[in-house]
Design a protein that fits this description.
The complex is a heterodimer of chains A (256) and B (395). Chain A is of the alpha+beta class. Chain A has two domains: 34 residues; 208 residues, 2-Layer Sandwich (Alpha-Beta Plaits). Chain A is built from nine helices and ten strands. In chain A, strand 4 and strand 5 form a beta hairpin. The longest helix of chain A is centred in the N-terminal third of the chain and has 33 residues. The termini of chain A are far apart. Chain B has 395 residues and is mostly helical. Chain B has a single domain, classed as Formate dehydrogenase/DMSO reductase domain (Formate dehydrogenase/DMSO reductase fold, Up-down Bundle), CATH 1.20.1630. Chain B has 14 helices and no strands. Chain B is globular. Classes of the chains: A alpha+beta (256), B mainly alpha (395). At the A-B interface, helix 3, helix 5, helix 6 and strand 6 of A face helix 5 and helix 6 of B.
Chain lengths: 256, 395
C-alpha cells in the first residue's frame, strides 16, 4: 500500500515538474515570437486624429464609397436587419450631433455625415471592458483584441456614439468568401468589433482605407504635431466634434 | 444534511422532476444559441442587452432581499426573525445562482469567461460585480449551512459565523450598489446616468426581494410542517411597505428632475416608456400596468388592516412583484437603450427562444431554492423548531 502511494506521489511530482517546464518553455517561445518586426515605413504619432470635410463628402453616396473601402479592407459582413455590423456609415446632422435645429440652412439639413469610432482620449469603452480586450494604444487608437473579448457587450452600452457592433451570428455567412482581404482576419461570432483607424495599414506606412478613398476630403495625422496636416486643417476651418459635453474627447473632427 | 433533500413526498418528486424536465428541454435551446450565436435573441446593435441582463438585474434584488431579515436579527437582535433567517440566506444562494446563470447565457463567448479572472481589470465595474456576487454567494453558503448544521446538532453557532453574517449584511448592499454602477456610470445613457439609480435599485430590491421571499415562505408553510412566526411575517410585510414607498418616491424624483428641468435627454426615455415616441408605443401598456399595480400594492399594504389580513397579503405582494418586475425587468433596460445614441427608437422584444433559455435559468434557481428550503424545513422539523401545532399538521 505504502509502496504504491510512494510511486504515485513520485509520478505526480514528475508530472507536475514536467508541466512546469513545458509551460515555461511555451511562455519563452511566445516571448520570442512577440518581438514582431515593425516596418521601417510604419507611420507613427503621439495622437492620431481625423478631420472630415463634410462639404466635400456630405452625401450618402459619397460616404458609401468610404464605407465600402473600409468594410472591404476589414472583411466587415453585410448583414440585413438590426443585428448588422458597421465600422463607418452615414447619418444626418441631428442624429450625428444630438443638436436638433429647426431652422437650419437647407444644405446642412440635407447633408450626411460620415460616422465612425471617435477613438476618444477618455474612451468609456476602454474604461468598462472587463478583460482589457478593448484598450488604448500609446498613439491614441482604441484597439481591440478579438481573441480576448468575451462578448459581454458592456462596451456597446458604454459607447455614446453607437460605434460598436456585435457579431450576433457567424459573420462569414454574410461575407463574399472569394473577395476576402487575406491581410486582415475575419471575426468569429460572439465578439464586438469597430473601426480601428486602420492600425494594420499605418504599420505598413499607409493611410487608412477611408482616407485613401476620400480624394482628400478626409485628413489623417498627428494631433500632437503642430506642423501636421490635421493641425493645419483644424487651424483653417471651423470644426465640431460629436457630443463634446460628455467629456470623452473624440479624435474625429468635422468641418461644417 | 443534503441527504434530507433526497427523501420526500410524491408531490415533492413531481415538482423536482418538472423542474429537471424544463432545465433539460430548455438546455436544447441554449445549445442552439451556443451554435448559432445570440442572433436567436431579439437583441440588436442598438439594444445590445436584453431580457437576460434585465433578469440578472432584477434577481440581484432578490439576492439582496435576505438582508431585510438578517439585518434586524443580527444588528437589532429582533428575535421574531430567528426562524426566517435561514430562508433569507438560502433564497440569496438561489438568486445569485440565477444571476450568474443569466450572465453566462448573455455573453457571446462563454468559454472565455475566465478572462475576467485571468486579466483582472479593476477599472471595469463588471469585474467588481463578479467579485461581489461570488463573494456574496460564498458568504451565504458558508453562514447558512454552518448555522443550520449547528441547529441540527443543538450546538451554539460558532463566533466566526456571526462575524461573517455581519460582513454579509454590508456585502448585500454592495451587490446592488455595484450592479447599479454597471449602468449609472455610462456617458450618453441618460435614463441610467443618475446618482439616484443605486438608491432606486436598493429600494426596489428591498421591497420586491422580501415580497418574493415571503411568498415562497407562505408556499413552504403550505407544503411542509414549518410555521413561521406570525409577528415576524407582519414585520416583514411592514418593511416591504416602507421600501415600496421609498421606491415609488425615488421614481417620482426622477420624473420631477426630468420634466421640471425640461432637458430633452432626461425626458426622452421616460416619454418613450410612458407615452411613446416616433410612433413607437411598445412599452406604454406595460409601464402603465406597472404604475397602476405599484400604486395598487401600496393601497393594499399601507392600511394595517389590509396588510395584516393574511388572505389578502399574498395578492398584495404578487402585484407588487409584477409592478417592480416590469419597472426593472423590462423598462430599465429597454428605456435605457431607447432612444439610441442617434435619437432613434429601435424596438426590442425577447424572442421565444430567449424566453425558453430564461426559463431554464429560472428553473435552475427554483431547483436550488427547493432543495435548500427542503433541507431547512426538514431540520426544523427534526429539531421541533417553528412547527405547526400538532392538530393542524397534514398527514
Amino acid at each position: 500500500m505504502n509502496h504504491t502511494r510512494r510511486n504515485f506521489l513520485k509520478f505526480a511530482g514528475l508530472t507536475a515538474a514536467g508541466l512546469c517546464v513545458a509551460s515555461a518553455g511555451s511562455i519563452m517561445a511566445a516571448g520570442a515570437g512577440a518581438t514582431e518586426k515593425v516596418s521601417e515605413k510604419a507611420l507613427k504619432a503621439k495622437r492620431w486624429a481625423m478631420v472630415i470635410d463634410t462639404k466635400k463628402v456630405g452625401t450618402k453616396e459619397a460616404i458609401d464609397v468610404l464605407a465600402k473601402a473600409c468594410h472591404a479592407a476589414h472583411n466587415v459582413p453585410d448583414i440585413p436587419g438590426k443585428q448588422n455590423v458597421k465600422w463607418l456609415w452615414a447619418d444626418g446632422f441631428e442624429q450625428a450631433f444630438d443638436q436638433p435645429n429647426n431652422f437650419m440652412d437647407e444644405s446642412l439639413e440635407k447633408r450626411q455625415f460620415a460616422l465612425l469610432c471617435n477613438h476618444c482620449t477618455n474612451a468609456s469603452c476602454v474604461r468598462v471592458c472587463p478583460t482589457q480586450a478593448t484598450y488604448k494604444r500609446p498613439d491614441g487608437i482604441v484597439a481591440m483584441d478579438y481573441h480576448r473579448c468575451i462578448g459581454c457587450r458592456y462596451c456597446m452600452a458604454a459607447c455614446p456614439f453607437g460605434a460598436r457592433s456585435f457579431n450576433f451570428m457567424e459573420p462569414r455567412l454574410h461575407l463574399d468568401l472569394t473577395k476576402l482581404n487575406k491581410e486582415f482576419p475575419t471575426r468569429m461570432r460572439g465578439v464586438v468589433e469597430k473601426c480601428n483607424f486602420c492600425v494594420e495599414l499605418l504599420a505598413q506606412g499607409k493611410q487608412p482605407a477611408c482616407v485613401e478613398a476620400s480624394a482628400g476630403a478626409l485628413v489623417f495625422g498627428d494631433l500632437s504635431d503642430p506642423a501636421s496636416e490635421v493641425r493645419k486643417v483644424l487651424r483653417e476651418h471651423y470644426t465640431i466634434r460629436r457630443k463634446p459635453a460628455l467629456g470623452t474627447e473624440p479624435s474625429v473632427y468635422y468641418i461644417i | 444534511m443534503l441527504e434530507k433533500a433526497l427523501k420526500g413526498s410524491p408531490k415533492y418528486y413531481m415538482w423536482i422532476g418538472f423542474l429537471l424536465l424544463i432545465i433539460l428541454g430548455a438546455s436544447g435551446v441554449y445549445l442552439m444559441q451556443l451554435m448559432q450565436g445570440l442572433t436567436i435573441t431579439g437583441m440588436s446593435r442598438d439594444v445590445s442587452w436584453g431580457f437576460y441582463i434585465a433578469q440578472f438585474t432584477y434577481l440581484v434584488g432578490l439576492a439582496a432581499s435576505g438582508v431585510m431579515i438578517v439585518l434586524p436579527y443580527y444588528f437589532h437582535h429582533y428575535k421574531q426573525f430567528k426562524d426566517l433567517v435561514i430562508f433569507g440566506e438560502f433564497m440569496a444562494i438561489g438568486a445569485v445562482v440565477m444571476c450568474l446563470g443569466f450572465i453566462v447565457v448573455d455573453i457571446g463567448q462563454p468559454q472565455r469567461m475566465l478572462n475576467v479572472l485571468l486579466y483582472p481589470t479593476p477599472n471595469s465595474i463588471l469585474f467588481w460585480d463578479m467579485v461581489v456576487l461570488n463573494g456574496y454567494l460564498i458568504l451565504n453558503v458558508v453562514v447558512g449551512w454552518t448555522c443550520l448544521e449547528c441547529d441540527r446538532q443543538h450546538l451554539p453557532h460558532p463566533k466566526w459565523s456571526k462575524t461573517l453574517a455581519y460582513v454579509s449584511i454590508i456585502w448585500a448592499f454592495s451587490i446592488h450598489t455595484v450592479t447599479a454602477f454597471l449602468y449609472q456610470g455610462l456617458p450618453g445613457r441618460h435614463y441610467w446616468l443618475t446618482a439616484i439609480l443605486a438608491a432606486r435599485f436598493l429600494a426596489s430590491a428591498f421591497c420586491s426581494g422580501p415580497a418574493i421571499l415571503l411568498l415562497v415562505i407562505m408556499l413552504t408553510q403550505k407544503v411542509s410542517t414549518f410555521k413561521a412566526n406570525a409577528e415576524g411575517i407582519a414585520t416583514l410585510a411592514k418593511i416591504i411597505t416602507y421600501a415600496m414607498c421609498v421606491n415609488v418616491f425615488f421614481f417620482l424624483l426622477e420624473v420631477f428632475t426630468a420634466f421640471y428641468s425640461g432637458i430633452p435627454g432626461h425626458m426622452h426615455s421616460i416619454v418613450y416608456l410612458f407615452v411613446g415616441v416616433h410612433g413607437h408605443h411598445e412599452l406604454v401598456p406595460f409601464m402603465w400596468t406597472a404604475a397602476v399595480l405599484g400604486i395598487g400594492s401600496l393601497c393594499l399594504l399601507i392600511p394595517p388592516k389590509l396588510r395584516d389580513n393574511m388572505k389578502l397579503l399574498p395578492w398584495s405582494l404578487a402585484i407588487l412583484v409584477i409592478a417592480t418586475w416590469i419597472d426593472k425587468g423590462l423598462g430599465l433596460l429597454i428605456g435605457g437603450f431607447n432612444p439610441n445614441p442617434f435619437e432613434q427608437i429601435t424596438p426590442y422584444w425577447p424572442t421565444g427562444k430567449e424566453l425558453i433559455v430564461s426559463a431554464m435559468i429560472y428553473a435552475i434557481g427554483a431547483l436550488v431554492v427547493t432543495i435548500l428550503f427542503k433541507v431547512a424545513t426538514e431540520v426544523k422539523e427534526e429539531t421541533g423548531a417553528s412547527q405547526k401545532p400538532a392538530a393542524s399538521v397534514e398527514a
